[in-house]
Amino acid sequence: MEQKRKSLLEKYNIPLSHLDFGYVKNCGNAREMEKIVNILRSGEEGFYPDLTRCAEDKLKELKPNSQLFRYEEPIQRSEFLDRKELKPIYDWTHDIKSKDSTLNEMKEDIRTLKANLPPMRTPSKIDTDKSATDADTAKPMPNPSVPTAKATKSSENRIKSTDYNKWDKYDPDVEILRMDLDEERAKEEAEQKNAKNVAPPKKAVDKTDENERLKERLMSRLEQLSKLERDHLAEKHRLRGNEYFKSKEYKSAILEYSQAIIYDPENASRSYNNRAISHLKVKNYLAAISDCEACLEIEPDNIKALLRLADANYGQGRRRESHDVYQRVLQLDPSNACALKSLEELHKQLGEIAPANATRLVIEELPPEVKPKPKANPKASPKVVEPKATKPTKDYDLAELVKPNRMVKNKILNASDALVGKESIKQKQGPIQELTDADSSPSMLRMPLANKRIDNNKILIEEL
Amino acid sequence: MDKPQMIEHLHESVSYTVYDTKWIPLSAKFVVLGSKANSQGVLDIFELNEDKLVKIKSIDKKVAFKCGTFGAASLRNRHMAIGDFEGRLQVLDLEHPDLAVYNVKAHKGIINCIDAIGGTQVDCGAPEIVTGSRDGAVKVWDIRQGQAPVVDISPPPQMGDGINKCGTRDCWAVAFGNTFNSEERVVAAGYDNGDLKLFDLRSLAVRWETTLKNGICGLEFDRRDIPMNKLGVTTLEGGLLVYDLRTQHATKGFSYVEERNAGRSVGTNGVISGPKATVWTVRHLPQNRDLFLTGGGTGSIRLWQYEYPDKRVIDDTDGSKL
């Protein structure tokens, strides 16, 4: 006993005076604290419950995940949970049982599946000890299936050196050609295999092609699988995608989600949704938008999908759409913090949009010409052309008053183009239009659509 | 509550030694393999009913079972591959257990460990079974092949001084991994002397090897159907290592974290400070590859979380049954 106590104190090389409230409170060294706790817990210096607790608290502060805080706990019985918490387990049991029985029924038609199992490995050996020589012996057959096939073929075709008749018929050119063809075919096969299998690295080169092929292959497989198996596989791929996503391998995640979607297109909303966020992460906004839309088609009120759609639109530079989508989110969930925050941000960038009583006043106080103009637009659509087309040059000062004039020019010209399509104007404005294409397209849409036209036009100008 | 808690759902006592248990894929049933006192093999199938466990089938065989797996079974047939004490590998249809689907005398000694792959995965190569045995060999089987293994990884024949048998290794753990396409495949094998070897089945070579201080009891890749990510290794004397297989140093090999007290039992007042015990097994959570369980020799189950840059241990254990 004596020796042991000595050893602990000595082992840690801590003077006895350190086992003291004052010292413990001021100690900043986690390792030293651990040692002190160890000594106190061992009881070799006597039991000081308060001091021990104090030291433990201090250690928790310094190093919250110290090994010393690992306790072994007795296992809880299921009575510990109440009925409600057990319900998911019971539900799962029922669910899985029905799956099980359907699987059992399908047992008979295994044959079809067996047909397209991957080929068998050719028997081989690995010597454990001579790893150096091992590498040499292994090299001749790095890809077991291809070389052996070749070997058997060549042995069949081989002509004995004494068989002169055959040698007479032997045409080296034809043989060489044949060998070349064989080689090419083998290469092609290998390439196909590679393309199928080594998807991620190849993807960059011919992504669409790769996806097509993947799809085709899966489709051919799909026909043989039952709904149950498909669901299972889809779920598996989706979860794998989630895992990839978590570890930030977005490209692999996208691939997994795509497979999940192919397997189970009816219930693919979650996969679409997750693929959308993966696309967002790799800044592929257009793909993200289309995925969100696909998800929303299945589940129109999916808030997450809406938020992602808004995000993607924003990333793509379509702020107006983004704004509309956020509005829709707020319709569904008025207190959605994310939407509120983003809307605020958008307002800052675009100017006030939504209820905007204040801004309306502001506009009314601005030069009176502003109002009549937008009013005029909707009233007489055929006539609009002239005032609009001429407006930028005429009312240059007015536009300046409102906001930077460059954009105003564009919008109105675009609108006029949309309405009439005067070729001469178009040609003139061609380059400008191209430059601000992203902005112009929504405005074109909006002009004819606007219900509350006056407001809308006001907003337009204001926003610019 | 910030800590996860483990709750025992059901409890059933059996009258034999349990060596292995496996869930039957897509069902609420699991298989228990074991050995009776008279060293007969026993295979029980239990089914989970709401709040009780029902034994639906019990099969007795002459030779005790050691290990089994469903890894090579497709969802439709769900055949179980079983290794027994006499080195026989059989694949059983659990509906008709009397006649094995495949039966081969695989090893000279007991089959310690088994793993299989390729059953349900799509585009992940052929379904294969790997066994590790007391005779030191690791063999990969394809049941279409017949009576010979497709890959045979045997130790060199004994350097016959005949007096002591230290020449032979004893393989205690095997695991498949890295099968993310139809060609890549890796087998990890752990031996009684602490050797850990990684065999590449595509190039048929030893990919990497190292030697740990203690014999290796359990091995598992965190996911076997993705490019190698992590490998959990458990050893005698309470060792737990997690290798990060994405960061390989030219000479030092893969980086790893080690936890020497993983098997340590409870000492005074619930603090883990008792003697070191074997960690028998490591199993990763199917839902989250960074969480895994270890089963220790003191009957404890411990739940760990791996954190990528540096590791931290969340939790803890239970003192439970066997």
TrEMBL record, chain A:
It comes from the Eukaryota. The keyword Cytoplasm applies. It is found in: Cytoplasm. TPR repeats lie at residues 234-267, 303-336. InterPro entries: CiliaryAsmbly_MitoImport, TPR-like_helical_dom_sf, TPR_rpt. Pfam families: TPR_19. This is Uncharacterized protein. The gene is Dwil\GK11656.
UniProtKB/TrEMBL annotation, chain B:
The keyword Repeat applies. WD repeats lie at residues 129-151. Pfam families: WD40. Keywords: Repeat, WD repeat. Gene3D superfamilies: YVTN repeat-like/Quinoprotein amine dehydrogenase. PANTHER family: MRNA EXPORT FACTOR AND BUB3 (PTHR10971). This is GK20326.
